[in-house]
Design goal:
It is built from nine helices and ten strands. It is α+β, with helices and mostly antiparallel strands.
């Protein structure tokens, strides 16, 4: 038995088919099938039930898969720990970002990493929060930038900044004269939202959308891309929520939009890095946090606290962002 055998067991348990499992492990199906048969012979019992259209773990196979997952995670941790004793810049870094973050941070993080780690290869991966968190756990991402309320309980969270939420509308919209807005004042029939959370507590108080919410619209929009929605706003009376980072970028790009700050609890999201416990790249994250403290992106409030400093206590006099 070796680690590769355990990887095969996990892949088959996950996919339920030898063909898909073999493809995910970059091995031929006959080679994987033969290796599993050898492992079953070595162990003296079946790991899987071979059915007509699927492969299911036996009770014993289920327990072996659970043990295999722990062993493989420990093995990955050994490899990760080795990075602490090598040149940090010799090991590539992969960071996940959500579609509502990535378009507005690629330039900022390009400058950040060129300054801090000029020799290191960095890859930014755009994906939804739940997918990125699974990839951090699976060791295919080193860290993911997510809102704290979207983080997984199995991952560490390092706060980096807080960020206000705004309501975005076209320039000249009647609501643009408001200095602030409450969630309950957002027009229900004109509100468009993405299917996933931005990471603000306030989102629970915004209008919910169902099949009848926008039924009176002559021209309606359903989109998965945040910028598709925002471009639609420029020539309609619809509205949506945007983070401060996005609002600042739209202003720099001269988009004909106005941004009204929310005046309600939960209008700030705590954004930070989700990492595996005992991740050996924490010293690198500390340098990133220190850089952001000194050079934050426009529109955010740095919150990173070095481990040897006492975190700041929240106060009741938190400033409300001014209208942009």
């Amino acid at each position: 038995m070796n680690l590769r055998d355990l990887e095969y067991v996990l892949a088959i348990a996950k996919h339920g088919q030898f063909s898909q499992a073999a493809s995910s492990c970059n091995v031929s199906q006959p080679a994987m099938s033969n290796q599993i048969k050898k492992l079953e012979q070595e162990l003296g019992t079946d790991l899987f039930l071979r059915l007509n259209n699927e492969v299911r773990p036996t009770l014993y196979g289920t327990r072996v898969a659970e043990i295999a997952r722990r062993i493989l995670n420990d093995a990955r941790e050994i490899r990760d720990t080795a990075t602490e004793f090598r040149d940090p810049e010799a090991v590539p870094l992969t960071i996940g970002m959500t579609p509502t973050l990535a378009p507005y941070l690629t330039g900022y993080f390009s400058t950040l990493f060129s300054t801090l780690f000029p020799k290191m290869r960095v890859t930014l991966v755009e994906d939804l929060p739940q997918n990125m968190l699974r990839r951090v756990e699976d060791h295919t991402l080193d860290m993911a930038l997510v809102a704290k309320i979207n983080n997984s309980a199995s991952l560490d969270f390092t706060s980096i900044w807080s960020e206000p939420l705004f309501l975005a509308l076209r320039e000249g919209h009647p609501l643009c004269t408001l200095s602030s807005i409450a969630p309950e004042e957002v027009p229900k029939h004109d509100f468009i939202r993405l299917p996933h959370s931005f990471g603000y507590d306030l989102e629970d108080r915004l209008p919910k959308q169902d099949g009848t919410t926008r039924i009176s619209k002559r021209f309606d929009l359903t989109a998965l891309r945040f910028e598709t929605i925002c471009r639609h706003l420029c020539h309609s009376d619809d509205c949506t929520i945007v983070s401060a980072l996005a609002a600042e970028q739209f202003k720099r790009d001269n988009w004909p939009l106005c941004f009204i700050p929310f005046d309600a609890p939960g209008h700030l999201r705590d954004l930070g890095a989700a990492t595996r416990p005992n991740c050996p790249r924490k010293p690198m994250l500390a340098r990133i946090g220190a850089y952001i403290l000194e050079n934050p992106p426009v529109g955010v409030i740095p919150t990173y606290q070095p481990e040897n400093e006492t975190p700041l206590r929240p106060t009741n006099s938190e400033p409300v962002p001014e209208k942009m």
